[in-house]
């Protein structure tokens, strides 16, 4: 096994261990952790079988296989960023609605207190 294979495999295993630690410590949601575990598993697979990427690239007609890895990585990161923005938008909308509901409840409460006087 070449040095780069060992390095990639060890980094993938360490990355998976960190993800499991974060999930167990409730610092990372399980759903997000599953995505990152898939990334770690891919790193381990490519570390153990680096020719796997070459076979996929050949099948797609790509002559330089690391190009496939970079294009896929950029695509996955783009989708991940888009998903994060969608989740952030949903949360901001919920917070805005909660603030409006709270303001209405406070107004009704204030009016009830003033009516009692």
UniProtKB/TrEMBL annotation:
The keyword Coiled coil applies. The chain crosses the membrane at residues 6-23, 28-49, 61-83. Residues 88-115 form a coiled coil. Keywords: Coiled coil, Membrane, Transmembrane, Transmembrane helix. Pfam families: DUF2304. The keyword Glycosyltransferase does not apply. This is DUF2304 domain-containing protein. It comes from Comamonas squillarum.
């Amino acid at each position: 096994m070449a040095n780069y294979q060992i390095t990639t495999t060890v980094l993938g295993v360490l990355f998976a261990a960190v993800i499991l630690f974060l999930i167990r410590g409730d610092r990372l949601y399980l759903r997000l952790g599953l995505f990152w575990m898939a990334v770690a598993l891919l790193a381990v697979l490519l570390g153990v079988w680096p020719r796997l990427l070459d076979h996929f690239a050949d099948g797609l007609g790509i002559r330089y296989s690391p190009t496939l890895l970079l294009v896929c990585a950029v695509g996955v990161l783009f989708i991940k960023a888009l998903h994060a923005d969608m989740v952030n938008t949903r949360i901001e909308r919920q917070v805005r609605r909660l603030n409006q509901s709270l303001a209405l409840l406070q107004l009704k409460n204030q009016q009830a207190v003033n009516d009692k006087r």
